[in-house]
Amino acid sequence: MEPRLSYLLILVGTLGLLAQTIYQVSKEKKSMEAQIKAQASAVKEGLKVKWRDYLLNRARENKLPLTYSLKWNRNGTELKSPFFPVKSPQMEWSSYRDHVKSKNQSAIRKFLEHALNRENSWDRIVAIEEWKSHTGNYPVLSGDYEMTLVNPEAKSSFKLLFEQFSFNKDFTYADNNFSLDLVFYRVQEDGSILAFLPSSESLKKEVLPEFLRLNTLSEASFGTNALELAVSERSTKDLKSPYWNMGFLFLSFFTISAGIFIYLMNLGEQRKIVTRRVSFLNQVVHELKTPLTGLKLHLQLIQRGMGERQNYEALNSGVERINSLFDDVVMMNRPFEKINPENLSAQTANNILNDLKLEFPELSIQSKFERAILADTKRLRVSLRNIIKNAIRYGAKAYLTVKEIPNGTEIQIRDHGPGVAKEEVEKIFSEFYRSENAKMANADGMGLGLFIVKKLCEEMNATIQIANPGEKGAIFVLTTKR
């Protein structure tokens, strides 16, 4: 009986190991599927960047049609040609409303035809919408502003064109070679700034097919304008079920089961580490590219003896941005360190607020600390600084309020920004995550600031949360416990 019992125990143990191996294979399948989706998303984002670079090169070769364009003076404060209708309404629209009430179709049509012939007037704009409501079709249009009424792409493109000049951007160093910010722009011979976007229709015949061929893609479509290229996901074969080779596992399990199990465990961990490192390096390289490009440009201008003071200031700003990025990187990669927060006096805590006020003139302190709090000086300072910096970046101003509660102290920081959507509340404190509202409001940033805040708060036994998800003017609440 003893040999049989031994064989039985070995068999039971082997089957247990086999079941564990199958379970790990199943988990690995799910992990690989998630990574494939993430890689596909990264490829799509990379192709969008390639598309913008490809269009910029063609623009510099004068191979793009200026379908939607505007010209401004060099300071970006004056439109060089009329865009909006300049003639005020002069027709008697009360008589038109009488025709509508009496359903006099002949009079309605005659009135609207007369209004449509009034070029560059607001009478014509009103008549366009009325014509559509009565006939079901828009009349033939020619003006830029009129096109924004009927063509979604024209509306999106001209919106970007106006935004290109609406943020007090400095075009002092712009030259006659096309650059790309929100749209394509360059300096004309008369000193004005020409900005434009091509239409997606004009790119479909030649430009888009050539781009697809160069990047071995089968198809792509446009979003609301020609810069928004939506690349379809490449066909990816589904991973095979981990059970397809079960027969082979049974035959060879007695000799390699332990090795397979250890290998799969290590492989999963290594893949996560490699994926994280690659993603991190990609983010850092992307963030460094912009300031380094600026540094190179201003150094070249200094060599030419052009505007040295402004260039030195720009160089200093670029260096500070790179230094800030490295500080965030070091902070993010620092090992988690749980501490016992110290009892900070109200004066010490208020000194932190005073320092932040000096650093950020846009900060308004509504109320200060009235009693001691449990916190760590350095961690509290960095946490508040990151939140305030975010508030000013996306909402222009920040308002800080200190509120004493029974179990601790609440520090509220609110802004006038776009807010945080409810579905993004759980993600907003994750590393490298940036909400859609944040991307639209400001293109810069790695998505590390709030991740660092959460990490520092956890280390000193504090909490950070959003008090008003889904509403404009985000309110961040940092709570220290008594």
Structure description:
There is one protein chain. The chain is an alpha+beta fold. The strands form 4 sheets. The protein has a 5-stranded mixed β-sheet. Strands 1-4-3-2 form a 4-stranded antiparallel β-sheet, with helices on both faces. Strands 5-6 form a two-stranded antiparallel sheet. Helix content is 54%, strand content 12%. The protein is extended, with a radius of gyration of 31 Å. Residues 235-245 have low confidence and may be disordered.
Q: Which key phrases capture this entry?
A:
5-stranded mixed sheet; 54% helix; extended
Topology:
Elements: H1 2-60, E1 68-72, H2 93-102, H3 105-116, H4 122-135, H5 144-150, H6 152-164, E2 179-180, E3 184-187, E4 193-197, H7 200-204, H8 207-214, E5 220-222, E6 229-231, H9 246-303, H10 308-333, E7 342-344, H11 346-359, E8 363-365, E9 373-375, H12 377-395, E10 398-405, E11 408-415, H13 436-441, H14 449-459, E12 462-466, E13 475-481
Parallel strand pairs: 8-10
Antiparallel strand pairs: 1-4, 2-3, 3-4, 5-6, 7-9, 10-11, 11-13, 12-13
Helix pairs in contact: 1-9, 3-4, 5-6, 9-10, 11-12, 12-14
The total beta strand count reads 13
Oligomer: single chain
Order of helices and strands: HEHHHHHEEEHHEEHHEHEEHEEHHEE
The low-pLDDT segments are 235-245
Average per-residue pLDDT, rounded, comes to 78
Spatial separation of the terminal alpha carbons: 67 Å
| Widest sheet, order of strands | 8-10-11-13-12
Rg from Cα? 31 Å
Strand content: 5-15%
